[in-house]
Structure formats: C-alpha cells, structure tokens
User: Which sequence fits this backbone?
C-alpha cells in the first residue's frame, strides 16, 4: 500500500482515537461510542497493515498457512477461507447489531428516569436465533468432514516416496527405508509436478516424548507420539525451501527443533539420493581427525557409514556437510560453529543432550577438520 | 405496611456502629479473618487471593513477553522461560480463575437467595485454606530444590503436563511433583466448595424463591458447581496415576513399558475443556446481573438462558478431543469432535443474542461495570468465532499449538472472564465495602486495558497463522514474526499500567471512596436489600419473594414482575 | 415482598426439600464416581496390553467371600439407621458393629489376596500394565473402605459413650450413603476386574 495513503490513514485514526479518549474523560456523560468503536477497529487494521510494510522479510520463507504449496495445505487453506468467510459475515452482522444497540439505546441527557418497557423474552426470536446457527453449523460440519476425509483417508499412490520420521529431544531423524538413506533435520523430497503424482508419505514415530511435525506451507501438523505410529503426507507443487519446527512442547530446547524441507526437482532429488547413499570417504589427509572421532565416545551416539561408529542416539553424520544447519537449525553449518558446538553444546543450545566431550584444542581442530570432509 | 416503611425494614441492618463491642486492634482483626467461617469474608479472601496471583502471573508473562519481544533474545534462559510459561498458565487457571469464581459465588449466592451463610460454613473455610495451601506449595517450588540461583524446581512441563515428558525419565527432580501436588490439593478444595454451594442453592433458598425465581447468577453458579464435581475429578485421578508412576514405578504413562501418552491427553482434556467452561460460566453469570441493571431491563429470555447454559454444560463434556485433533485419531473420531464442538457454539451464541436482546430497547448507562459488560459481549463474539475456526479439524491441524490458539483462549480468559470479573468488582465493591470505586479511575482502567488487550491479542492471531508455535523460548528472525511479537509486548505493557490503575483504585477507594448506600445502582436482586456492607447475618429477617426481581416489585408496586413471569 | 418470621419453613418450592447432608453427600459421591470412572477406563484401556508378566486369567480368583461380606454390610448399616430412627440405640449399636466387622473382614481379605499376588505370583504395581491398573483401582477402592471404616469407628466410639441419639439418625443416614456408595463401587470393580477382565 502506498506510504502516503498509510500515513493519511494513520493520522485519521490518531485523530479519532485522541478525540474519543479525551472526550470520554472530559465529557463524563456521553462519549460517542460509535466513533470509539470505529476508531478502535481502524487502529487495529492499521496496526496490522504496518507490520507487513515495515519488515524486510523474504516472503517465501515466511511459513504462512495461507501460502500453501502442497496439496493438503491447499485443501486446508480453501476450507479456512470458507470458514473465515462465514465467520466474517457473522461477525459483521452481530457486531453491527451490538454497536447499533449501544448507540441507539443509550440513556440520553434529557432522560426522564422512567424505566423502559420490560420485555422478558420472545419465543419466535429465540427460535430464529437458534435455528439459523444450527443450519450454519450443519453446513460447516459437512464441509469440514469432507476435507478431513480427503486428507486423512488419502490412499498412497504407487510412486510415492516413503520417509520415516523419528522425533528425538531435540532433533529430527529421517530415514528413507526403500532408498537406504538416513539423514537428520533437513528433509529432501521431490516436487510433484506433471501427470505422475509423487507425494511423500511420512511415518511419524518418537524415540522419547511427544513432538509434532509442522511445515505450514506443506501440510497441517501431525504429532509424533511414543508407542504410536502416525502418518501424514505432503505433495509439494513448487521447488524451494520450506521452514517449519516442532509444534508440541517437548522440553528445554523445543524452540530449536527446527525443520527445513527442501523440495527438489526430480533430477536434483535423485542426485541428492545418490550422494547420500555413499559411505563416507576415507580421506587420508584427515586420518588423524578420524582417529580422534573413532577413539572418543562419539561413536557411541553417532553413525558414520564406513567407520565403526554405529550409535543411534544422535544424528547420522555421514553427510554432515550436505546440510545447511547444525543442531536442528540452532546453528549454521560452518567450521567455526561446528567447532563451538562440539566444544560446548550447552553454550550453543542450553540443555542439549549432547555432552561436552572435553577434547584438547588440538584434537578438536583435527576432529573438525575431519568432519568438514563429510560431504 | 406501605412501601417506604418496607424499604427501611428491608435494609435489615443493625446500626452500623457496634454498641458494646470493645476496641479491636490490628491483631484481633487479622485473627477474625483467619478463623472466619462467614461466607462474605471467605469470599473476599478468595478474591484477594485471586487478584494477588493475577499480579504474580502477570509479572511472569511480562518476563515472557520481554524475552519474546525480539528474535533470539537472551533475556531469559530456556529453562527459566519454560518454568515461567508453565507457572503462568497454571497460576492463572488454578490460583486466579478458580479462586475468583469461588470468591464471587461464595459472597453472592447466600445474599441473593436470602440465606445467612453457605450450607457448611466450616467446610467453606476448609476449602479456602486448602486452596491457599495448594498455591503456596506450588510456588514453593521456585525456591525448593536447587534454590534461587538454579531457578529452583518450579514446574517446567507446561500447564497441561503432557506425558511422558512428566515421567521420571524425562523430568528428573521435583518440578512435576510440585505441580501435581499443588493442584491436587487445590482440587480437593474446589470439590468441597462446589458441593457446599450446590447444597446451599438446593436447600436454603428463602420462601417463595423456587428454582425458576432464582437470579441467573445463582442458576449459573449451580451449573458451574455441578460441572466442577465431574470435571476436577478426572484431573485428580490422572494426577494420582502420575504420582504412582513417578514414585512407585507404575506404568500408566510410561511409554517404555507400553503405557500410553495419549491416555494422559484424554484424561487431561476431559478435565481441561469443561474447566474453561467452569471458568467462563461465572463470567456469564456476572454479565447476566450487570447488563440488565445498566440497561434498565429484565434479562431477555431467562428460561432460555438457563437451558442454554445447561446445554453448554452437557455438551462441553463431549468435546475434549478438539485439543487433540493432531494426535492421529481416525477421520471418524475427528469428525465426531468437530460436530460436538461446533454444536456448542449454538447455545453460546444464544446467550450472546439474549444479552443483546436485554440491551435492545433499554436505557443504557455506561458506568464502569457496564463498559466491561459490553466489551465482554464483543469479545465473546470474537472468541466464539475463532473457536469455530479451530473446530474445523483440518484448519486446526494448522492452527493447533500455535499463537492463534493462544490468542483465542486469551480472548476467553482475559477478554471475557477477566473483563467480567473487573465489571463484577466495580459492581459489587460498594456492597462489600460500603464505598464506591472511583468512576474516573475506572474508566481509565477500562480504556487502557481494552486498548492493551486488543493490541496484544488481536495481533497475536497473526503469528499463529504465520507458523509460530507455542511454548518456544525464542524464535528465528526472518519468518515475519518480529514486529508482531513486539506489538504484543507493547500491549502487555499497556495492560500492566491499566492493572496498576485498578489496584490503585481499589486501595484508595477502600479508604476514601464515596459512601454507597444499600442500593447504589438501583438494582433488583436481594443482595441490594441489605446494608453495605451487609451485617454478618445478612438479613435481619429472611425475606419472602414472589418474582425474580424482588426489589423491582417493591419499587414498582403497580407493575410487579410476578404479574408477567 | 414481606419479611418471614424465623419459624417459617424454608421450603420455597412448597414441596419436599432435600436435607443438606443428603445433598452434600450426593455431591461427594458424584465427584468420587468420576474419579473411579477414570481408573476403570484406564483398567479397560490397558486390558490385554501388558508386555509381559502374569495375566489376569492366570492369577486372579473371584473374591466371593469378601464381596458377600462387603455387600451385606450395606444391609446391616441400613438396619442400624432404621433402628436409630426408631430410637433403639441398642439395636443401632449392634448393627453398626456388625457393619464395621464385615467391612474390616473385607479389608483383611483384600490384604490376603494382595499378599498372595505379590509373594507367590510376583505381581506388583511395577510388574506390568495389569499390575499397575489392578493395584491402583482395587487400592483406590480399598482406601475408600478404610476412610469409611474410620468414620464408622468414630461413630461407634460416640455411640458406646452414649452420645448417639435418635435425633442423629439423619446424620447416620448420610454416612450410610457413603458406605452404600463404596459398596456399589465394589460391584463395578468386581465386574470389571474379576469378570470382564479375566
């Protein structure tokens, strides 16, 4: 919206707001309530407009539920629009009646202090405002039921990609059983374009407490519950990076259990899969660092394919450098941050379950040197 | 007997100066309050207790909002933040909401039905002190355990304490135990008080006051107390199970041994959803007294209001899993809860329309209680509509556990309940203390609080829609949430100022407020027929009533209500 | 609106108004029923889901004698209240004592059953989901029997001291309502645990 228009609107609101606040205290009998309520509403609309004008955000990264790029997210957004439209109409009607009542039936200054006619009720009126809401509820319920069925009972087509998601305190494990790859925190899926649909079906499990997988632009959220397998699906229709995070309080670092979903072209996705399938290279120049890794307790929690490291408690590190972030989005993936993370996880992500390994600085440098070769 | 003589008699008070009582010093006064079984004193103590913790929980959320004002803030550590939001929610529901509603019920119900006290006065005191003890136990957690430097052992598992996060494996230390025991003890107090109020209403109404002639506030409190009996108990049961898990090694919610995390969710929300209706129905009750008086009309559709509230009470027991749409129920299960949740909007809407109908054709006076009442209706409308949005399960799959939900339920808890509690305090403060609260300060309080409320909670819907989940101690920059959070924090600051104005109003009016007579608002129910404050025995003679508005009948002898009801 | 005199009956509905004690006790019973319902739901939910350990069919035997004692104590307490209403304090004392004895035997029998389960069958609350739900549900009921017995014993003490008179019949009746509730709960627990569950 043009800046000039916004400024004008803002000043108009300010005038109204100032007038009604000042007036209601100076003139103690009859503030102009219609103006007051109108002013309030305008101020609110304006405030909300200002928000979007002022920010310099890459809008593609804003995880808005009203910017869907996947089939189930589209279904939900359409349902949301429908519900918003109906509730919007109800709001306008009832709020107008309320404002009207407050203005029209206020006690005037010249009132004669008699009591108004006492009306105790009205059968027909009660019937009307019972039946109309019931009809609205019926319509909403039927529409909602249809979308529930559409999303929840969708059958998995033949070409669908299968991913197992396992939630941990406070990172995500992604396993592609049919492809034999394991990664963490950053999910790669192919886009579904053209005639052959290629959705991704996700099986959700938890290794510890309840988590929730939420990438708003791709689908509604589904919980990861220990002892229960939930399933959901996404069908992205555009390539790009989609952000999300855990949406069920799961402990200290719930806030930093971030999600990144990369929707790739089919070629890019296949290339990514091929890279992930490889075992870790045995680069002789970092053999000392690999030795540090294998001789420290790291191998008890982490997997690096091609080494003896076989632990399942922490993320798979075989292709650590193929990721953009570390610690489930808490840090960016650079050697300095990696070094800081290994040196003291609790400083970077307080409460994280990875212990400080108390390595000497020299060993730490070697280790980081080795890990940065894990492409 | 003619009208004026009756009115004098109706004040029912002994002379306000006690005749032969010796001078009481401060300690005697304190002692009188500590050992009292008088429903009025206990009611006021409940309310003071609730208001005190309102300020405490407000400070907690103030700290939260400072932390969230900018992304990646380091004002609070995650551990402290998690304790603060847990304590904020737990305090507001159990140490503010429940005491306030029981305080109002305690104070008003006997007066409105022409009784001298509750049915079991000593049980009343017992229930109050149990609640106090529960609250103190909960707050002791801040210093119990590791002590202040380690931020104590305050609960940090969320107010809903989901399993298995609360199991011994994931919650070492005693934070969860403080949460469980503190609330459980308070829960026993709530059940005792609810039973007390029900017995009072069913057995001690004055002659002529049949069930259909009780004030709506009394009806709604009866319904609320009935709900308490079957709502608090599931939470108590689940908490007993949790304690058994944590202390004797049982496996109710121990997922490693086959226990179920969803079972806790079901039990908790079977409590949790009716609980919010328990909190809001007394707000409905206050509105149903305030709005008619300041519209100068009888409540529109009294029987329908009663019926709608009973319907709400029953249906609210069947909607609980709308808090669990994301846990992976079948589509049939989800659809059932969509239907039941949407259904509850019908009686709620009916009530809104009836309040509107009460105002329609009236002569509205905009004293402070009525300002809060009108705002209450407006907020209830919005809250109901965002509730309908959340009831649409697929929409819920996006909005659940996001800031949209926080905005929705604060519309209920603050926009409806707190607003109407404020309104009720302005309305009945003169009755309880004999002095009016200052109107000018009241208006400042109202407008500031209204602006702050809308700044915070209107805005707060948007981060939810933009993907911001709940219970996060910080958030990433670049997602479009920054300025929205800042605005929410500013609104919080405005509400804090408003609350300070309110506290100042109360404190100064107790000492310097304008004296109120027995009936400063020209109202119609029995509590206005006795002096302000009422004598300990409430009424010199138990009144006999013929209609729902006994004082209207006296003031309008040619046009009494009982001719039309 | 007139003033009523102190002797006017507080009977606004013109008909029968329940006594405060009965209403209050009914409220308590409703709340307690809700608690028991949750434990019963947990029991039924976890039926068959134990991952190991003894199963109900293997270790549970019908506690017939226990149940007969507890249920007949409901009958005897009714006799006691009847007697007190008629002013017959001697019969009241007798039937009240019998009630206490029957209730005490029930507890004793439960204790013996648990001792057998723990010592001989190795079933504790920690063993598996069956152990968890069994001991908590039956234990919750037993704790209510204990509380009831304590109340009955207190009344017994007053009665033996001669303080219980005919005008206290209503109070004894209210207490007997609690005792009846405890018995009804046992019927439910018995059905769920020993019949459905096995």
Assistant:
């Amino acid at each position: 919206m043009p800046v000039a228009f916004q400024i004008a609107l803002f000043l108009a609101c300010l005038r109204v707001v100032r007038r009604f606040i000042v007036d209601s205290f100076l003139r103690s009998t009859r503030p102009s309530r219609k103006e007051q309520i109108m002013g309030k509403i305008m101020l609110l609309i304006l405030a909300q407009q200002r928000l979007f004008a002022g920010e310099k955000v890459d809008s593609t990264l804003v995880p808005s539920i009203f910017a869907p790029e996947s089939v189930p997210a589209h279904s939900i957004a359409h349902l949301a629009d429908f519900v918003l439209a109906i509730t919007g109409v109800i709001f306008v009607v009832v709020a107008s009646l309320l404002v009207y009542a407050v203005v029209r039936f206020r006690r005037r200054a010249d009132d004669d202090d008699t009591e108004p006619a006492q009306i105790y009720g009205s059968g027909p009126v009660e019937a009307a405002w019972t039946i109309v809401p019931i009809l609205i509820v019926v319509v909403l319920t039927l529409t909602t039921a249809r979308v529930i069925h559409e999303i929840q009972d969708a059958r998995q087509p033949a070409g669908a990609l299968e991913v197992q998601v396992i939630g941990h305190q406070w990172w995500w494990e992604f396993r592609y059983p049919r492809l034999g790859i394991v990664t963490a925190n950053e999910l790669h899926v192919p886009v579904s374009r053209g005639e052959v649909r290629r959705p991704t079906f996700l099986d959700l499990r938890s290794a510890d407490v309840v988590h929730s997988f939420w990438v708003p632009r791709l689908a509604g959220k589904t919980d990861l519950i220990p002892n229960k397998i939930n399933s959901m699906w996404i069908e992205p229709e555009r390539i790009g990076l989609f952000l999300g995070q855990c949406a069920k309080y799961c402990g200290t670092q719930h806030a930093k259990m971030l999600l990144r979903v990369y929707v790739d072209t089919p070629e890019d996705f296949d290339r990514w899969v091929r890279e992930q399938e490889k075992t870790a290279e045995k680069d002789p120049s970092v053999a000392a660092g690999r030795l540090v890794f294998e001789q420290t307790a790291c191998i008890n929690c982490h997997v690096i394919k091609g080494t003896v490291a076989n632990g399942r408690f922490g993320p798979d590190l075989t292709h650590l450098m193929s990721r953009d972030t570390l610690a489930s989005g808490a840090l960016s993936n650079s050697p300095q941050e990696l070094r800081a993370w290994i040196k003291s996880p609790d400083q970077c992500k307080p409460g994280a379950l990875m212990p400080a390994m108390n390595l000497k600085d020299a060993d730490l440098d070697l280790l980081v040197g080795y890990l940065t070769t894990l492409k | 007997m003619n009208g004026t003589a009756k009115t004098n008699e109706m004040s029912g008070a002994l002379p306000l100066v006690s005749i032969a009582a010796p001078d009481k010093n401060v300690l005697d006064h304190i002692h009188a309050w500590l050992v009292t079984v008088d429903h009025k004193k206990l009611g006021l103590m409940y309310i003071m207790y609730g208001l005190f913790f309102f300020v405490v929980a407000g400070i907690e959320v103030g700290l939260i909002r400072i932390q969230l004002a900018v992304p990646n803030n380091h004002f609070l550590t995650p551990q402290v933040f998690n304790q603060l939001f847990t304590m904020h929610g737990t305090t507001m529901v159990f140490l503010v909401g429940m005491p306030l509603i029981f305080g109002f019920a305690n104070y008003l119900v006997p007066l409105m039905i022409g009784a001298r006290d509750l049915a079991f006065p000593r049980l009343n005191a017992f229930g109050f002190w149990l609640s106090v003890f529960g609250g103190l136990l909960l707050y002791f957690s801040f210093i119990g355990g590791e002590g202040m430097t380690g931020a104590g052992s305050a609960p940090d598992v969320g107010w809903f304490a989901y399993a298995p996060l609360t199991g011994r494996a994931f919650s070492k230390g005693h934070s969860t135990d403080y949460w469980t025991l503190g609330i459980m003890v308070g829960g026993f107090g709530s059940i005792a008080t609810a039973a007390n109020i029900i017995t009072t209403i069913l057995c001690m109404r004055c002659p002529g006051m049949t069930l259909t002639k009780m004030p709506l506030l009394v009806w709604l409190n009866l319904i609320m107390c009935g709900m308490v009996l079957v709502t608090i108990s599931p939470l108590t049961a689940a908490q007993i199970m949790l304690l058994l898990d944590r202390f004797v090694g049982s496996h109710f919610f121990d997922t490693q041994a086959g226990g179920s995390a969803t079972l806790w969710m079901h039990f908790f929300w079977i409590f949790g959803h009716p609980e919010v209706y328990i909190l809001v129905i007394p707000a409905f009750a206050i509105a149903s007294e305030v709005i008619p008086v300041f519209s100068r009309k009888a409540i529109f559709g009294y029987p329908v209001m009663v019926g709608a509230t009973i319907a709400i009470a029953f249906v609210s027991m069947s909607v609980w899993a709308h808090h669990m749409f994301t846990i992976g129920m079948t589509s049939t299960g989800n659809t059932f809860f969509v239907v039941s949740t949407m259904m509850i909007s019908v009686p709620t809407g009916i009530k809104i329309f009836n309040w509107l109908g009460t105002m329609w054709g009236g002569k509205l006076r905009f004293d402070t209680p009525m300002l809060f009442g009108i705002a209450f209706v407006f907020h209830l409308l919005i809250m109901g509509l965002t509730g309908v949005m959340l009831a649409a399960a697929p929409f819920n799959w996006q909005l659940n556990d996001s800031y949209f939900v926080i905005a929705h339920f604060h519309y209920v808890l603050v926009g409806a309940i707190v607003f109407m509690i404020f309104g009720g305090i302005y309305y009945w403060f003169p009755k309880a203390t004999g002095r009016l609260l200052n109107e000018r300060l009241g208006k400042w309080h109202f407008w500031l609080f209204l602006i702050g409320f809308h700044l915070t909670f209107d805005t707060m819907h948007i981060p939810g829609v933009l993907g911001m989940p709940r219970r996060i101690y910080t958030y990433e920059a670049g997602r479009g949430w920054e300025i929205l959070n800042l605005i929410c924090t500013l609104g919080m600051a405005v509400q804090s100022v408003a609350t300070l104005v309110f506290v100042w109003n109360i404190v100064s009016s107790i000492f310097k407020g304008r004296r109120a007579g027995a009936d400063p608002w020209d109202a119609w129910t029995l509590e206005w027929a006795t002096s302000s404050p009422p004598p300990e025995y409430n009424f010199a003679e138990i009144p006999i009533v013929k209609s729902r508005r006994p004082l209207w009948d006296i003031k309008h002898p040619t046009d009494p209500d009982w001719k039309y009801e | 609106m007139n003033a009523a005199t102190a002797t006017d009956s507080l009977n606004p509905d013109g008909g029968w108004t329940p006594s405060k004690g009965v209403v209050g006790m009914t409220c308590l019973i409703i709340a307690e029923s809700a608690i028991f319902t949750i434990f019963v739901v947990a029991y039924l939910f976890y039926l068959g889901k134990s991952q190991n350990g003894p199963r109900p069919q293997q270790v549970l035997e019908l506690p017939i004698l226990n149940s007969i004692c507890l249920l007949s104590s409901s009958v005897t307490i009714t006799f006691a209240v009847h007697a007190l209403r008629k002013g017959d304090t001697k019969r009241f004392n007798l039937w009240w004592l019998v009630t206490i004895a029957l209730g005490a035997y029930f507890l004793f029998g439960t204790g013996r059953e648990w001792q057998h389960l723990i010592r001989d069958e190795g079933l504790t609350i920690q063993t598996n989901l069956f152990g968890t739900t069994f001991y908590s549900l039956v234990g919750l009921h037993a704790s209510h029997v204990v509380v009831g017995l304590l109340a009955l014993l207190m009344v017994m003490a007053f009665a033996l001291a001669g303080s219980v008179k005919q005008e206290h019949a209503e109070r004894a009746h209210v207490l007997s309502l609690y005792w009846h509730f405890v018995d009804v709960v046992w019927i439910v627990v018995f059905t769920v645990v020993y019949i459905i569950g096995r």
The radius of gyration of chain B is 24 Å. Chain B touches chain C through 58 residues (CB under 8 Å). Residues 85 and 158 of chain B are 7 Å apart (CA to CA). Chain B has one domain: 25-563.
